[in-house]
Amino acid sequence: MANRSELGRKGNQPDLLAGLIFIVAGALGLWAGRDLTMGNAAMMGPGYLPLIVSALILLIGLGVTIMGLMRSSEPLGVVRLRPLLIILIAVAGFAYAAGSLGFIIAAAWLIGIGSLADPETRLREIAASIVVLTIFGILVFILGLGVQMQLGPF
Amino acid sequence: MELFDSLILGFSAAVTPTNLLFCLIGALLGTLIGVLPGIGPTATLAILLPITFFLPPLAALIMLAGIFYGAQYGGSTTAILVNLPGEASSVVTALDGYQMAKQGRAGAALAIAALGSFFAGTVATIGLAIAGPTLAGFALSFGPAEYFSLTIFGLLCATVLASGSVIKAIAMIGIGLVLGWVGTDVNSGSERLTFGAVELFDGIEFVVIAVGLFGIAEIIINLETPELRGLIATKISRLWPTRDDFQKAWPAVLRGTALGTFLGILPGGGATLSAFSAYTLEKKVSRQPQQFGRGAIQGVAGPEAANNAGAQSSFIPLLTLGIPSNAVMAMLLGAMTIHGITPGPSVMQNQPDLFWGLIASMWIGNLMLLVINLPMIGLWVKLLTVPYRLLYPAILLFCCVGVYSVSNRAFDVALAVGFGFLGYLFRKAKCEPGPLLLGFVLGPLLETNLRRAMLISQGSPSVFIDRPISLALLIASAALFLLLLVPAIRKTREEAFVDEEA
């Protein structure tokens, strides 16, 4: 433990993040299940196991956080917002469009916006991808496999 | 010869033109996506899973099995040619395989990998055919208490044998369990943990979680790391290995097969553990261990045979007990459930054509891969030169349409966005998402069995101790847990995984 001076200063960031996720997940479980009946061991109510396990996740989250503070520091690694946000927005847009605007718009949005996640993509490639993949999707998914989605917004 | 009759039944079910076609399509698609660096078998299965929902159950399972083997093989090809293992189980293949490729022996490495895998797959399939009925017969006497203890044991084993922190893995299982309980409680009929969303009353769709955590999250991670792309070592000139290669490789294949078949059965085992152990074993028994890492053919043959044998025999606990041993098997269990099949001992009795058909198709799938892989190596190599930026939009489209098609709802796609983000966070937090998937598929089973057992015993936990099989499983679980607390063993485990990651 040569780098004792670093201990507790920054902490083990992956562990801290894990701890945070677990605490939030456990708390969310407890909150969502707050009105469920526990019942007893012989007649378990709908809330029995979910509440026990959620509490366990919360406790582990606290433990992992404390451990993360004590362990040697470790950075989180590269976080680049561009691919993260663009991919999530592209898929979310697909979800919205699939419900109301139909497959062609949904797929074109997904592929067009999604392609922007890689900074090296060129405009011509995006256009080609949209055309090729949308036609492929119509043929394979809608006509071939019979996925129930309108083609257009009408 | 009951086994013989069963196998004939299996082959007659599997060898129909449509089933063979789906097996081929599965193997091709699996290889296609498996070859891409950064996308392992779990992600490949998640992406392609929804396509199989349109098929009859047996054809769907056959296709999924084909996808799985294809992805496995595809990963090895990438590992050997460009030193980028597509998944954890081919990490060790890259060590010596890539060195061989650099020496101009890529053809030999690929051929030995394919032949060794085929041999191992054949042996492990026979093992499954023999062990399956025995184990299933044994499991028929299991009551709720035994099943509860078995599930606990399986889940705990999965955390111990998987890499990474055990405590995090347990929390991940917990999250999976809770997610599995979302929806309508079967006993009381009341809805729970749904936040009032009507779409969640039937629970969260398995595909949503699988595609979100493995498909979408994996694409984001791949895009974040600058161009995961190696250089293709050399042109592949000579495909067939030399006589000397064969002589060195076959004992390694035999050892790898034996090891993989055994390790695959263990919960949490499967392909990855088998491959790593086989590499270590080959290095130990070799007379020239210094050759390893410099292009030793045994270092390719052993792990490749082992990972295929392990992949195959990890079907045993799933098909006979209904307990998946790793994330890939959890994926197959999810697929079976969607087709209305509950895996477990009763499948073999009630739907023997399904069980034996699947076994027969495993062998056929392995044979097909041998046929596809060797002559088509050139094509897969070409695929590796296509930039990722052109490929991932297509994968994204598969993910989205796949999630949508499960119940034709846009809601599921929106939910998958959430799981994609969660999967990204998990990777940043160094949490393996595999245990979550295991917890999710086993959650309802665990709760049902616990409730039944406790109802019968009127709330007394002694029921788990009074029944010998249950007691044995619980003692084994407790022992496993205690072992982890022993510092020496914990250290060995950490070292073992450090060695693996190197």
Automatic annotation (TrEMBL), chain A:
Q: Where are the transmembrane segments?
A: 16-33, 48-69, 81-114, 126-147
Kindly indicate whether the keyword Translocase belongs to this entry.
no
Q: Which InterPro entries match?
A: DUF1468 (IPR009936)
What keywords does the record list, in alphabetical order? Membrane, Transmembrane, Transmembrane helix
Q: Which domain of life is it from?
A: Bacteria
User: Key word Ribonucleoprotein present in the record?
Assistant: no
The DUF1468 domain, residue ranges:
17-149
Cited Pfam families? TctB (PF07331)
Q: What is the protein name given in its UniProt record?
A: Tripartite tricarboxylate transporter TctB
Organism annotation? Microvirga aerophila
From TrEMBL, chain B:
The residues that cross the membrane are 45-69, 108-132, 152-182, 203-221, 258-281, 318-342, 354-374, 386-404, 470-489
Q: Does the keyword Transmembrane apply?
A: yes
Q: Tell me if Transmembrane helix is a UniProt keyword of this record.
A: yes
| Keyword entries, A-Z | Membrane, Transmembrane, Transmembrane helix
**Domain (DUF112): residue spans on this chain:** 20-438
* Name of the protein: DUF112 domain-containing protein
